[in-house]
């Protein structure tokens, strides 16, 4: 019974050790532990199995020695022989069960070995496929990382150009605002100039009207001076006629003698008055002539001034029309400048938004580049893990070969055990015959 319990424990422990070894191997691979850990686990499992096999072999040797001693004692004592026969029968049955169970262990080890070969081949193919795929993935990731880095460089350059464009847009906006303010000031000056031109036109028009009135007055004065000149001529003629009449009266008074003396005196006085009247009329005519000449000169100057005033009025009118055109153009330009200022402001805002968007793009691109580099590094590490898996698959295949060798060696031991079983059965037959003969 003791041997039977030992055999049962041996079978259970051996299976547990083998299963634990392979489970630890695959669990370790999934968890990413180093390869030497798996080697240690497998070696410990195989070593434990071999140690148990060694103990089992020792037990068989001890049983063989025990059988020999029992045979010797059976030849000396019949009762002891019967008891030994019973023990040998129990031992033979136990050994038979042990051999059957060991055969079962052998079959299970063979199945495990075949499964290990299958897993090793599957793992090797998977590693090769994964290695090929990872090479392509690593190359793609490296290309993506390079493209992301290049895109980051282009994004930074585009950001710098957009920043320059934003500065220029802001500068254009500032210039447009300054131009708008300057143009408004110019419009104020033009408005003041328009008011001044209007006032000047009114003054020129009033002066022209005054010049026209003055010219009319000077014309009337010239006409009246001419009439007065005519009157002075008439006065001179009357004075001459009066002088002639006074002379005739004096002649007649002289002819009258004493009676005509008083009349002669009167005639003489009349003659003097006529001479004085003639002189005065002549002086008046000369003065009037000078005055008429002055009036004519003033009239000519007035007419010239009137012509200049008319020209000034016409020029002022043209200036006013030109100013109105300038005003209209200025108002249109003011609208255009306001529109330019509005567009420049909108453009600056849009460029600001674009710059902000490019900042986000640059940030995302840099993060993508960094992530790609990290993924590339992780892929390299994963590739190293795959290489480790490939090496472990090869090691597992070698271990399976060693396990097959152990199974073959264990098969040889099983042949020896079967021989021992036959020897024990033969011994039992001899003991039974000996016990029967002694009865």
Question: Could you explain the architecture of this structure?
Answer:
With 439 residues, the chain is an all-alpha fold. It folds into two domains: 2-164 and 371-438; 184-358, Orthogonal Bundle (Helix Hairpins). It is built from four helices and no strands. The protein has helices at 2-31, 35-76, 78-256, 261-438. Helix 1 packs parallel to helix 3 (78-256). It is rod-shaped, with a radius of gyration of 75 Å. The two termini are 29 Å apart. The model is unreliable at 1-7, 29-39 and 76-80 (pLDDT under 50). This is Methyl-accepting transducer domain-containing protein. It comes from Biomaibacter acetigenes. InterPro entries: MCPsignal_dom. Residues 126-383 form the Methyl-accepting transducer domain. Pfam families: MCPsignal.
Sheet/helix structural class: mainly alpha
What Rg, in angstroms, do the CA atoms define?
Answer: 75 Å
- Please give the alpha-carbon distance between the first and last residues: 29 Å
Give start-end ranges of low-pLDDT stretches: 1-7, 29-39, 76-80
How is the biggest beta sheet arranged? none
Q: Based on Cα principal axes, name the global outline.
A: rod-shaped
| Number of beta-strand segments | 0
User: Secondary-structure element sequence?
Assistant: HHHH
Q: In percent terms, what proportion of residues is strand?
A: under 5%
Average pLDDT over all residues: 67
- Helix count equals 4
Proportion of helical residues: over 70%
The total tally of domains equals: 2
Keywords: Coiled coil, Membrane, Transducer, Transmembrane, Transmembrane helix
Domain Methyl-accepting transducer: 126-383
Transmembrane segments: 12-30, 36-61
GO biological process, one term: signal transduction
């Amino acid at each position: 019974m003791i041997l039977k319990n030992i055999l049962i424990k041996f079978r259970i422990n051996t299976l547990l050790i083998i299963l634990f070894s392979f489970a630890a191997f695959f669990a370790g691979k999934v968890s990413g532990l180093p390869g030497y850990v798996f080697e240690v686990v497998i070696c410990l499992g195989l070593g434990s199995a071999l140690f148990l096999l060694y103990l089992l072999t020792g037990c068989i040797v001890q049983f063989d020695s025990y059988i020999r001693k029992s045979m010797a004692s059976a030849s000396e004592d019949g009762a002891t022989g019967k008891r030994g026969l019973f023990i040998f029968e129990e031992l033979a049955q136990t050994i038979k069960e042990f051999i059957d169970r060991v055969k079962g262990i052998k079959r299970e080890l063979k199945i495990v070995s075949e499964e290990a070969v299958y897993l090793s081949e599957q793992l090797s193919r998977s590693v090769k496929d994964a290695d090929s795929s990872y090479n392509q993935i690593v190359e793609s990731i490296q290309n993506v990382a390079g493209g992301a880095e290049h895109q980051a460089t282009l994004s930074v350059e585009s950001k710098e150009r957009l920043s320059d464009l934003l500065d220029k847009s802001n500068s254009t906006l500032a210039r447009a605002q300054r131009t708008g303010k300057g143009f408004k000031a110019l419009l104020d000056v033009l408005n003041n100039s328009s008011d001044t031109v209007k006032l000047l036109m009114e003054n020129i028009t009033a002066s022209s009207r005054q010049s026209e009135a003055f010219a009319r007055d000077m014309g009337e004065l010239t006409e009246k001076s001419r009439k007065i000149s005519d009157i002075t001529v008439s006065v001179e003629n009357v004075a001459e006629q009066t002088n002639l009449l006074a002379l005739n009266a004096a002649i007649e008074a002289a002819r009258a003698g004493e009676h005509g003396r008083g009349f002669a005196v009167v005639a003489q006085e009349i003659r003097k008055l006529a001479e004085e009247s003639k002189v005065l009329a002549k002086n008046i005519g000369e003065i009037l002539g000078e005055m008429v000449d002055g009036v004519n000169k003033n009239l000519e100057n007035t007419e010239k001034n009137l012509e200049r005033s008319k020209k000034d009025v016409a020029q002022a009118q043209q200036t006013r029309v030109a100013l109105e055109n300038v005003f209209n153009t200025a108002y249109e330009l003011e609208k255009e400048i306001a529109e330019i200022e509005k567009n420049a402001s909108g453009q600056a805002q849009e460029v600001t938004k674009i710059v902000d968007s490019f900042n986000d793009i640059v940030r995302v691109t840099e993060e993508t580049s960094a992530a790609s580099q990290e993924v590339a590094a992780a892929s390299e590490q994963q590739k190293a893990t795959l290489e480790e898996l490939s090496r472990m698959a090869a090691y597992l295949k070698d271990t399976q070969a060693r396990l097959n060798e152990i199974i073959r060696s264990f098969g040889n031991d099983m042949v020896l055990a079967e021989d021992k079983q036959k020897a024990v059965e033969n011994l039992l037959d001899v003991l039974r015959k000996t016990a029967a003969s002694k009865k």
